[in-house]
Amino acid sequence: MSVLEPPVADAPAPSAGPSRTTGPRRWIAVLLVVVLTVLAVAGLSTVVLEQRSYTSAADQLNVLVDQAREAEETRAAAVVTASTAATEAASLVAVDTTGFADPNAEATLTADAETLAAAVATAGAALDVPDYAARRSRTFWPSAVDEATTELQTQAADLVAAISATRTATAALEAARAAVVGSRQELLASVATVSTQVDAANDVATNDSRFAFRDAAAAVDPTSSDQTSALAAYVEAGRALLTSQAAEEAELAGPLLDEKVAVEEFARSIDGGVLLDFNWAPTLVIDGQTWGRSGSLAGWTQFWFDRGGYATIPLTDSVAAQWPRSKSLVVHEVGHAIQTKCPDLADHSTREAVEAWATAWAIGMGYTDPGNGTQAYGEPPESLVEISTSCR
């Protein structure tokens, strides 16, 4: 039998839900993001580290730049000072001080001056100081920053070596200059000792040449501004002293040489330190009368109170010919000279007073024969003889 049933409605098709990524794909994406982030951070860190290295290298170089500038300033100042010292030393060495200064000191100064001149020549080149480096690189590209850093480090290493060389040259300059200063002072200081020896050795040179020599020696001062001129003037005065000595010795020469030397040595032995010049002549004209002929004896004295007292005593050759019988006359003349040592004890107002003093002084020295001045000027007061004994 046939049955008619109502048609069955079609079952609804399942609706499509939201699209979803499968598990593996999701993790790949996440990982990619992480990698990219890490790479970005790493790259940024590299840039930061490279910049830090660059900044450190720049700071180190800039510290060296400051040191280099200081080293160069010190070197330049040392060159100026050493050059001046070298010039002064060369000038001193050029003065021939043979016989008037310590030869060892002169040799030392010569050697030290040569060493200083060489040090000046070696230290003459200026240190090339670079400009300060920027603390930030001009680029952020790592390789470029690294290259700039390496360049700064190389520059710093070169500068360290240059600074060391400059300081070494400066130290050599200063040491050489100090040596010259020391040897220069030794040479100049030796003048005091040597000049005293020269002065004593040339005992018959004139007082004028002796005073000039002493003044020139005193002017040789290690602290003076023009040491070369002072040293040259001293040497010139020394040579003049030697010339005077030779002239006086020539005047003494002859058949009465030994006797004249004996007269002068005796007079200087009792002069109390007063400097004496002697002039010898066959005759002397005193008060219009000629002395020295037929065995007559004569002498006269010109004296000065400055420079500690000094005098010139002309004597006739007969005084030497009759030595030592003429000793009292010589003592009388020295008595005139020694007044300069005791100016407050003697009356210098008249010729008579001056002669009385010299006669009294000779008597006080124990010379009582007529040659002491009593024959020509009479007996002096006993009180003056007593006073004269305190002047020796």
List keywords for this structure.
about 400 residues, mainly alpha, 2 domains, three-stranded mixed sheet, two-stranded antiparallel sheet, about 60% helix
Instruction: Summarize the helix and strand pattern as letters.
Output: HHHHHHEEEEEHHHHH
Evaluate the radius of gyration: 51 Å
Assign the structural class, choosing from mainly alpha, mainly beta, alpha/beta, alpha+beta, or little secondary structure. mainly alpha
Low-pLDDT parts are 1-9, 37-44
Please count the helical segments: 11
The backbone outline, from C-alpha atoms, is rod-shaped
**Secondary structure: helix percent:** 55-70%
3D architecture notes:
This protein is mainly α. It folds into two domains: 34-201; 255-388, no CATH class. It is built from eleven helices and five strands. It has helices at residues 23-94, 103-122, 142-201, 207-219, 227-252, 257-269, 317-321, 327-337, 351-364, 374-377, 382-388; strands at residues 275-281, 284-286, 289-291, 302-304, 310-316. A three-stranded mixed beta sheet has the order 1-5-4. Strand 4 and strand 5 form a beta hairpin. The radius of gyration is 51 Å and the shape is rod-shaped. The N and C termini lie far apart (193 Å). 34% of the residues are buried. Mean pLDDT is 89; it is low at 1-9 and 37-44.
